[in-house]
Target: Ribosomal silencing factor RsfS
Amino acid sequence: MAPLTVLSTRKKAQTRLSRDSEIFTTIIKAIQEKKGENIVSLDLRQIPEAVADFFIICEANSNTQVRAIADYVEEQVREKTGEQPYKHEGFTAQQWILVDYVNVVVHAFQPETRKFYNLEEMWSDAERMEHND
Model:
């Protein structure tokens, strides 16, 4: 599996987000509505080398569901906040789709791919919060 390149090609915005930010809550709700599982947010704000304020990570059991989550996140964020993603990747293979809103990056994985990349371990210094119903 090839790594996604989007995170190394852009700079973090200057405005800081919180878990109460409209975009953050919209993303979490969209993932939950599409039945994303094992939803976790990583607060990266205290990590100087971090490329975003938050990662939101979830998993789905099929390519179709991974795609549906990513599509619905984009639709809901656009509808509720007017924001478009800076970039997205992974729509071809649909094993891991990344939707980048600069300060918050959404990662929708299939379980095996999530285990392989293990972002939670890579960013283990970040405060972790679960968002499961």
About this structure: The chain has a mean pLDDT of 90. The two ends are 31 Å apart (CA to CA). The longest strand covers residues 37-43. Residues 22 and 94 are 27 Å apart (CA to CA).
